[in-house]
Amino acid sequence: MDTQTWKTRRGSNPRLETDQVIEIPSTPTGEVRHNVTPTFKTALIIASWYFSNIAVLLLNKYLLSFYGYRYPIFLTMLHMLSCATYSFIAIHWLELVPFQQLVSRKQFFKIAGLSVIFCFSVVCGNTSLRYLPVSFNQAIGATTPFFTAVFAFLITCKKESGEVYLALMPVVLGIVLASNSEPLFHLFGFLVCVGSTAGRALKSVVQGILLTSEAEKLHSMNLLLYMAPMAALILLPFTLYIEGNIAAVTIQKAREDSFIVFLLLGNSTVAYLVNLTNFLVTKHTSALTLQVLGNAKSAVAAVVSVLIFKNPVNIMGMTGFGVTIMGVVLYSEAKKRSKITLH
């Protein structure tokens, strides 16, 4: 009786008799493990876009108004040289986008014409920062849709819907309120800032006219690659004639204070990052998202500049800026609805 068969002993532990299959959870794939990565990447790109846009404004303001480096044309030329260098690296070495060659001499002259408008807009914008606070500069810059609609009508006879034109009224009303109540208002600064805003709008309209054929259309990164060196060459005689031997002045300043080298290099690099992040935001979101972010960016830049530079603001000025931003939002919505109606 003491002897038990193997079968009896085996039967004494019923848990081992059943052929249980224990399912071990599979290791998540890289896609599942990192499903938040695309969202995080997009958020990082948007944050970089905000940082670069606001940083270049604040650095320009600091250099031109507070540090005493009062050479906006030369500063713009440095920006253009930086954009040309970094664009070459991004396209030819990093291959962020395919390289596009110019197809004709006619296309070259079209891009040269855009470069002239581009120079005018950027130089005027940088010059205005010598005389106006960043907050007021951004309020004026927010009126770009108004000038775009005006130039589109004057040059191409393109008419918008009544709703679109109606939405532009608060854009203009807001800037009138802000101008009348701006404590640091400067007439020349105001005029060159308006010129910068109009130039930016004119460039977008002219670009849409000149580079219309499929053969001549250029990716924004390639367009910058061609426009930046052209713009630098255009600015060179102006900076020499108006601002003098600025290279010698800069070298002398660098000997006295080496921090100026860091400021100029950092400023020029951030100026390129504005264009790079602008492309990346559009790539990872949409042009409409970029437009919405741009509306918010003006307000954020204005608030940050007030916190840093402590320039005085009043209720009427803030109200005018808010009315302008509201008008830009209404304009964007009206344009979107008019496109849907046309289609």
From TrEMBL:
Cited InterPro entries: EmrE-like, Sugar_P_trans_dom, TPT_transporter
Localization of this protein: Membrane
Keyword rRNA-binding: no
Bilayer topology: Multi-pass membrane protein
Annotated TM spans: 42-59, 71-96, 108-129, 135-155, 162-178, 223-242, 262-281, 315-332
One GO cellular component, as annotated: membrane
Keywords recorded for this protein, A-Z: Membrane, Transmembrane, Transmembrane helix
Keyword hit for Iron: no
Domain Sugar phosphate transporter: 41-332
Protein name: Sugar phosphate transporter domain-containing protein
